[in-house]
Write a structure and sequence with these properties.
The structure is a single chain. The chain is of the alpha/beta class. It is 30% helix and 14% strand. The chain is built from five helices and five strands; from the N terminus they run H-H-H-E-E-E-H-E-H-E. It has a five-stranded mixed beta sheet, with helices on one face. Helix 3 runs parallel beside helix 4. The protein starts with 11 loop residues before the first helix and ends in a 9-residue tail after the last strand.
Length: 179
Amino acid sequence: MSNKYNTFNLDGKLVELHGFSIETRRALHQIPEVSGMEFKTSAYCQALMTEMGYSLTTYEGFTGFIADLTVNPEWKRVGFRADMDALEMNDMTENDYRSQHEGRSHNCGHDTHMAIVLTTAKYLVENQGELKHNVRFIFQMAEEDMRVPGASKMVELGCMEALPKCTPCITMQRWNTAS
């Protein structure tokens, strides 16, 4: 892979996942679903996490889920979170992987959040021998619409269990997703 993708001196094994990351983001960009209705999105993410070897916990009636990688049961667990829902608006892009759902889009960047988290999950499982912590990935439903239970419901369902207080939980926001 060219150094143009490695301006931050990243581990070469992570840089090799660049194509996976782009492919994943483009696939997710095409299937945006609004808060609480992320069925295809959740199924796509669950399939990838299962294929990678993660242990999944799903919640009946909800699209959010968690995926755990337990390297050593005695170790602490760190968490990574991604939003899964989309906006009720037309896709602002004109590319080949634009939204297939009229009036719904990932103009919010959640497709990017999920692609980053899924790429991270792939990197960590492939390099688990180097880890010093167990890992939990939280795929949160319904971040965009406060009328639908999202973060609070995920916590109520137990997504933070096994994550000690003050444990690192990596979340992100991405700006300028239209460029």
